[in-house]
Amino acid sequence: QLHSDQDKGDGSLKYILSGDGAGDLFIINENTGDIQATRRLDREEKPVYILRAQAINRRTGRPVEPESEFIIKIHDINDNEPMFTKDVYNASIPEMSDVGTFVVQVTATDADDPTYGNSAKVVYSILQGQPYFSVESETGIIKTALLNMDRENREQYQVVIQAKDMGGQMGGLSGTTTVNITLTDVNDNPPRFPQSTYQFRAAESTPPDSSVGRIKANDADVDENAEIEYSITEGDGYDMFGITTDKDTQEGIITVKKALDFENKNLYILKVEATNTHVDPRFLYLGPFKDSATVRIQVEDVDEPPVFSRPAYIMEVKEDVPINSVIGTVTAQDPDAAKNPVKYSVDRHTDMDRVFNINSGNGSIFTSKPLDRETLLWHNITVIAAEINNPKQSSRVPVFIKVLDVNDNAPEFPMFYETFVCENAKAEQLIQTLSAVDKDDSYSGHQFSFSLAPEAASSSNFTLQDNRDNTAGIFTRKARYNRHETSTYFLPVVISDNDYPIQSSTETVTIRVCACDHRGKMLSCNAEALIHPTGLSTGALIAILLCIIILLVTVVLFAALRRQRKKEPLIISKEDIRDNIVSYNDEGGGEEDTQAFDIGTLRNPEAIDDNKLRRDIVPETLFMPRRTAAARDNTDVRDFINQRLKENDTDPTAPPYDSLATYAYEGNGSVAESLSSLGSVTTDGDQDYDYLSDWGPRFKKLADMYGPADSDKDS
């Protein structure tokens, strides 16, 4: 209440109020000065209000005292409960953590005045989550309260924390929050096989690197703590099998490393070990983080194809062996316990010429055709061995046959020898050196001997000297030769080798007698060279060349003239159409026949197509047709014909010879107009046709038909 010393209680003063909330939140009784609040006040909204009051004379409106200021403070009461900063907290800790391990800290705030009483003093407590977790009452720190909490037993925990003001005393306000706590995994569980022994079966035909089976050790941990590595530690199949780890399923895949053989060993026993790859040293006290199991692999028998004693065979045979000679034997056996009999055959795709054959029972290979080392040195064939009872079970082996050489080819000249001797040659003059080749192979080197054939040894004009180095020389026996007497000599030479059996052949050397200069250079070897000149003279060559040039010029001129000639008419006639009238002995198709002429154009000159070319000759592309003006409606027939005649005379595209041109034009009409009776029905009355009688005898029949009506009645 405000009161002025000037107030005598007679109602002459008036109290007014201004400042925070004046007139709205706070009102004043202007007569008594009592200040009242209009609604409930909230300290958390505004704790202090500053107001100003003054007393004025009601009649004059003047203040009777200076304006005074006063402060209204709102005293706090516990009307706000504690509020957590989050509605839900999420936290995680490793499993097997020690007691008192920090988990998370929760925080709650109270809007009440912390300086006034205990309204804002918050105390934390746990409502749900014991005995696993605890919370510090003053700080809100949550810690573990139980030792060795195992994720594999329970992974998720939900803890409810309460925050209460008034220091936790009775009557205080409270708020709660939820804390979700997850236990993360640690490697505290070793792998364990669910069974101690595993049984698998594998066919002996299983190829290497193929899977036999899968085993798996269980690990309660997750992620990298559950990663397992498998290995074979011992067993009689240590070198026959291997094991790898499937990273996706953590299974051990047992695979075959080498080919299995039921007949040699049909049972393998392995010891497989599973070990964690990431071991936590803190939990080694729980035991070794590995486990082992026994794996028994039973090898099953399958029907296998025959197996050859060698992976490949190499044989040798001389090229002169007779047909059906055995050159070697291949052997194959059935590896199965049944030991089924085997039959042999040659793959004919590798022996298309059927040079070799094989005994189907014992595998001996023999020749079926003669061999020739010089034709083919190596024969590569394939032999097939198949079970008689089951031919599908077969195997193949390559057989390489080398053909050995025998001396079955005689030596011969490496080329055709043709030499010459000068007419003025001296005796014992070397004119040619000979050599020889042999298709056969000689291990110690070829040694050839040369000699003249017996029939030429005594009567020949030449001698032969063997140089003992696989060459020989031909020498003249006499001086001077005459090519007009004998122009060519044929000298037979016998060549022999020194292999067994000795092979020899007779080769011929051609020797021409030629004219030479004093230095021995050949000039001519033709016997008629001195009598008849060889070849053509220079004058004859020039004459032939001129004839060829004249012929080429004639052809060029002829082609040029043909290009300048006008094209021939397409009309083909046995007679010359340039000086004769062509007779067409066909009636034609009337107006529908438009192959030769456009009849419509003849009837109507205005419908002429300016770009239409003549049809009786080949189209000429050198000149374009001239555009002519259409005849006027009043042009008569004579003017029309003269106009067309002038156009044809001056047309550059017209042929240069006489041609038949048709001029047909019936004119623009007749003064009598239409003579048809079809139009007579359109008139209301009879028409007068008396003028027909005046047209002459040609129109007499029409005059009789369309005469006066009286004459019709009389008749």
From TrEMBL:
UniProt keyword annotations, A-Z? Calcium, Cell adhesion, Cell membrane, Cleavage on pair of basic residues, Glycoprotein, Membrane, Metal-binding, Repeat, Signal, Transmembrane, Transmembrane helix
Keyword Calcium on entry: yes
Q: State the superkingdom.
A: Eukaryota
Transmembrane spans: 540-561
Q: Where is the Cadherin domain?
A: 4-84, 85-193, 194-308, 309-413, 413-523
Q: Identify the taxonomic lineage of the organism of origin.
A: Eukaryota, Metazoa, Chordata, Craniata, Vertebrata
One GO CC annotation = adherens junction
Q: Cite a single GO BP annotation.
A: adherens junction organization
Q: What molecular function does GO assign, one term?
A: cadherin binding
Q: What does this protein do?
A: Cadherins are calcium-dependent cell adhesion proteins. They preferentially interact with themselves in a homophilic manner in connecting cells; cadherins may thus contribute to the sorting of heterogeneous cell types.
SUPFAM superfamilies hit by this protein: Cadherin-like
> Where in the cell does this protein reside?
Cell membrane
Q: What is this protein called?
A: Cadherin-6
Its principal location? membrane
- Tell me what topology the record assigns in the membrane: Single-pass type I membrane protein
Look up and give the organism this protein is from: Upupa epops
